[in-house]
Specification:
It comes from Nesospiza acunhae. Keywords: Chromatin regulator, Methyltransferase, Nucleus, RNA-binding, S-adenosyl-L-methionine, Transferase. It holds the Pfam family SET. With 144 residues, this protein is mainly beta. It contains 1 helix and 10 strands, in the order ββββαββββββ. The strands form 3 sheets. Strands 1-2-10-7 form a 4-stranded mixed β-sheet, with no helix packed on it. A 3-stranded antiparallel β-sheet has the order 3-9-8, with no helix packed on it. A 3-stranded antiparallel β-sheet has the order 4-6-5, with helices on one face. The longest helix is centred in the first third of the chain and has 13 residues.
Length: 144
């Protein structure tokens, strides 16, 4: 159990929209659960293609494990607006509650009011690179 953090989404300097703290958050606190539909890889592949055909520029697919992906594209919560950063202030952790795997975002360090919530997406390395826009000193240059 945890008290729900006061968060807001707004324009981000990193990428389009982001999620921001509306209250101070201490280190090692649960910030928000990543909520969406649990789907299999086959369904995720089909949806990714369909989203592209529909002109949906951003899909919000988050891998839980080998078999399960959470799709927050059309039925997610504010967690889907959290941007990638190479030096993030949060991290994602898979936890199991009543035999159900969930993705929860935890703070790595204290986060101030109006500070953007970020985590490292840890995308697998692929030939087609996705540019990183975090602009931090230790930016890797790509998300993958």
């Amino acid at each position: 159990q945890f008290r729900k953090k006061r968060l807001r989404f707004g324009r981000s300097r990193i990428h389009e929209w982001g999620l921001f703290a509306m209250e101070p958050i201490a280190a090692d606190e649960m910030v928000i659960e990543y909520v969406g539909q649990n789907i299999r890889q086959v369904v995720a592949d089909m949806r990714e293609k369909r989203y592209a055909q529909e002109g949906i520029g951003s899909s919000y697919l988050f891998r839980v494990d080998h078999d399960t992906i959470i799709d927050a594209t059309k039925c997610g919560n504010l967690a889907r607006f959290i941007n990638h950063c190479c030096t993030p202030n949060c991290y994602a952790k898979v936890i199991t509650i009543e035999a159900q795997k969930k993705i929860v975002i935890y703070s790595k360090q204290p986060i101030g009011v109006n500070e953007e919530i970020t985590y490292d997406y840890k995308f697998p390395i692929e030939d087609t690179k996705i540019p990183c826009l975090c602009r931090t000193e230790s930016c890797r240059g790509t998300l993958n």
